[in-house]
Amino acid sequence: MASVEHTDSQGLAGEDGVRRRDFINIAAVSFAGVGAVAVVIPLVDQMNPSADVLALASTEVDLTAIQPGQAIKTTFRAQPLFVRHLTEKEIAEADKVDAGGLRDPQTLAERTVDGKKQWLVTMGVCTHLGCVPLGAGEGENKGEFGGYFCPCHGSHYDTAARIRKGPAPKNLEVPKFAFTSDTAILVG
Amino acid sequence: MSFPWAEHYTPKHPLTQWIDEKLPLPRLVYNAVGAGYPVPRNLNYFWNFGVLAGLALMIQIVTGVIMAMHYGANTLVAFSSIEQTMRDVNSGWLMRYAHANGASFFFIVVYLHIFRGLFYGSYKAPREMVWLLGLVIFLLMMATAFMGYVLPWGQMSYWGAKVITGLFGAIPVVGEPIQTWLLGGFAPGNASLNRFFSLHFLLPFVIAGVIILHIWALHIPGSSNPTGVEVKGPQDTVPFHPYYTAKDGFGAGVFLILFSILLFFAPNYLGHADNYIEANPLSTPAHIVPEWYFWPFYAILRAFTVDFFFIPAKLLGVLAMFASILLLFFLPWLDTSPVRSGNYRPTFKKFWWILIADVVVLGYCGGAPAEEPYVMISQIASAYYFAHFLIILPLISRFEKPLPLPGSITESVLNRHNIKGEQDALPGMGADPQPSNAG
Amino acid sequence: MVRIGAFLVGLFFAGWLLISFLVGAVAYVSEPPAKTVEHEFHKHPKDVEFSFDGPLGKFDRAQLQRGFQVFKEVCSACHSLKFVAFRDLAGIGYNEAEIKAIAKQWAIKTPDVDPKTGEMSTREPVPADYFPKPFANNVAAAAANNNAIPPDLSLMTKARHDGTAYVYSLLTGYQNQPADLIKHFPDAKTPEGLHYNPYFPNLNLAMAPPLTADGQVTYGDGTKSSVDQMSKDVSAFLTWTAEPKLENRRRAGLATIVFLLIATALAYMSYQNIWADKKKAA
To answer: Transmembrane segments in this chain: where (chain A) (predicted)?
Structure first.
């Protein structure tokens, strides 16, 4: 069969030829593999939030109508958001607790903005399994600690929305927010 | 599977042996599109289009499933949900344009695949079933493409749905109830949109199923080849893998380059501007035309302008349009020449070229407005189309004197090699030159 | 049997088509179809050059901003732009603060529900809002515009053949009806309330010429705002609104094609090598 190699115009005879040819096959298959991976990127990325969803990722809340002791439920990123105007008594109750002994140690001051301690802004999503706790609406069960109570599995939150009793592992999440004026906040 | 000299799947690793015992799927793939499938060694590039059609279907299914994630099948939001996908979804424009142009490419490769079969007599015994299943796939594709075109709920979507379902309305007595039943109303609306979406999602998987049958039926006699001479022995074949997988890999590259040029640089070239106007049941576009791949059939539909006694021209057009596809199912029994390949049938070859030109003319007329001279031209072209398959082909196969066939595939490869000379015998053309010392 | 049946069916269809052809041809010769006024006087869009022409062209951000200004000061009084949001203006080079200000000062307010009373009301748009529509619904739009509904402009340049040039030609194409037209088609005189424009498919357009005088818009960047310039700029802007991802698409396309060319060349070499091997084995 050696004569075949001699008539072969591509001159692929010998050890080097074999290696070069293997290399080309491997290169071709690798290129196809890289291409396949590159195609997967947009196929996966298209499931991320789209631009219109991201554009609604911040919520402005007007605080003027919320009296001390009241709370409102609004939405932030399509989830409930609790904005609570704490009374002096509730603030005192929250401050009285030794934060160090809590399941998720945090003081009320750490969970609110400096000088605006009466405005408690939290997500209305129980940190256990994501139910909406009661306590923001008028006449709802506020739980044993006067804050929020999640009826799904009985988690009790105190007036600083910290977990005090029940299965939830964390305090209600405080989203990133800032005061745009004395009576308005921008969440997100 | 088909030839005794086919290579056998012999797993070496204990794991692959274990899998082979429990579920011989790798063995199935090996025998279907692997080294276990011996294929004639002389296939030319026209034999690439089967695999490319499979690739096109995969592109359509992947991009289609993604489009469905962002689509709202409701007349109030359908149009805007697609705009939203184009503008706001990450890479949404890519998915949408790939899906829309992918449909066109699917039809391009399938048409090439069909005309390859027509030229090389791939529909003849023993491959009639392969041809029939292929036609079933083609019909399913047309239904899928039509329903898919309705989904964006643009002007052409709406009026296309109205006109095509109106075809059924031409059937006497039961026509109108059928049209109403198809639409779930008296005009295209929410009910139509939802059922079209549901079926548009379902049918591609049915197509995939029929493709499996198509390949199964193909594997019983084995692939045809450009000479039309059956495989006589191991010297006539090469294993599908790596020989034709490599060739199909190259073919896929060329396909993807052409696809990318259209997709990225002229994504609306094959579309119609009117489909960027939201559907308006109160205003018909000046020229309603279907997508380009339906144009030849649309020309046949519109070619009938004179009533035949009690049969209205409209019904004749509908019958003729369906007949133009259905007649292909009878092709294996219309063309009775024992010679398969058009290369050895001089008269057949000439008429095949006339048919190609005829279909191109029909396509052009189908896309043109319904005015003269296009109607007259499409009447002549449609007449030829029917005459070609139903009259001319049976006559040719009776009276034509074919050229002498090569003794075997290998012999034809050798002859070609000798004619062309050593230096420019490209294995790329499928005619793999036999080494000189073998002869 | 099959062949006899086929022969008869073929004869029927082909024969009847030829008869239909003869009937049509006789009619065509005996009374040739009359030329319509649209056939004679409708013009294809003018040739006009833009920075985004060709496969690798890019938008000219300054031009898009000028075009946006024309849209804002002229078109938006009657035409909606419902698929475009204020936030999208980042794509033509505005920053977050500018977009916020544009939304706040937009002449048309976004419809909303009063959070206290639940009544329908309006508020200032924010960046996440889509451009508010000038008319509450089609009935209001038709009533205010002599029964013609001004179409949404978001997709206008894709919804017309050669759309960018079409918009430009339409805006600069208003003229008096040619004397020739009146002479040959006396019935085709532009009706009261419509405006003759040979670039419009049926020649008579409900929209009055929107850009009538040089300097109608005062450009911030000092460009002279001739009617031609304003038409060109707003056509460019509407090309962007119809296809905001144009540049991403072309960039991705270039990369894809370069990659595919290399991959295909490798596939070709690999294919040749594999078949060369076959030669050896045979």
So the answer is: 23-44
Q: How far is B305 from chain C (nearest CA, A)?
A: 6
Mean pLDDT value across residues B92-109: 97
Co-location of A71 and A32 in the same domain: no
- Could you read off the pLDDT of B252-280 as tens digits, one per residue? 999 999 999 999 999 999 999 999 999 99
pLDDT of residue C67: 97
Spell out a b/e string for B163-174, using b for 16 or more CB atoms within 10 Å of the CB, else e: bbbbbbbbeeee
B439 in any annotated domain: no
Residue B284 carries which DSSP code? -
Could you list the residue range(s) of the whole structural domain that residue A7 is in? 2-45
| CATH number of the domain within which A82 lies | 2.102.10.10
Is residue A12 scored above 70 in pLDDT? no
Q: DSSP character for B22? A: H
Which ipTM value was assigned to this complex? 0.94
* pLDDT exceeds 50 at position B250: yes
Buried b (16+ CB within 10 A) or exposed e, B73-108: bebeebbbbbbbbbbbbbbbbbbbbbbbbbbbbbbb
The answer to whether residue B4 is domain-embedded is no
Nearest residue to C14 (alpha-carbon basis) of B379, B298, B275: B379
For this structure, is B291 an active site residue?
Answer: yes
Q: β-pairing, C110-113 with B237-239?
A: unpaired
Residue A21 and residue A106 share a domain: no
Q: Beta-carbon neighbour count of residue C5 at 10 Å?
A: 11
pTM for this one? 0.90
- Provide, rounded to the nearest whole percent, the portion of chain C with pLDDT above 70: 98
Residue in A4, A25, A38 closest to C273 by CB = A25
Where in the sequence is the domain holding B157, given as residue range(s)?
A: 25-429
The answer to whether residue B258 is domain-embedded is yes
* Residue appearing with tokens 């339409």: C170
Determine contact: B389 vs chain C, CB below 8 A.
yes
Catalytic residue among A6, A85, A128, A153: A153
Helix (H, G, I), strand (E, B) or coil at A81: strand
CATH number of the domain where residue B164 is located: 1.20.810.10
* Total number of domains in chain A: 2
Residue ranges of the annotated binding site of C for heme c are 75, 78-79, 207
The DSSP string of C51-98 is TT-STT----HHHHHHHHHHHHHTGGGT---TT-BGGGGGGGT--HHH
User: Quick one: tokens of C145?
Assistant: 């515009």
Tell me if B269 is assigned to some domain: yes
Is 60 exceeded by the pLDDT of residue B208? yes
Residues A41 and A104 in one domain: no
Q: How many domains is chain B partitioned into structurally? A: 1
Q: Which residues contact C271 (CB under 8 A, 6 or more apart)?
A: B246, B247, B249, B250, B428
Asked if A30 and A69 sit in the same domain, the reply is no
Pairing of the two strands C195-196 and A155-158? unpaired
Q: Flag if C17 and B308 touch (Cβ within 8 Å).
A: no
Specify whether A6 is catalytic.
no
pLDDT band with cut points at 50, 70 and 90 for residue A41: very high
Domain co-membership, A60 together with A29:
no
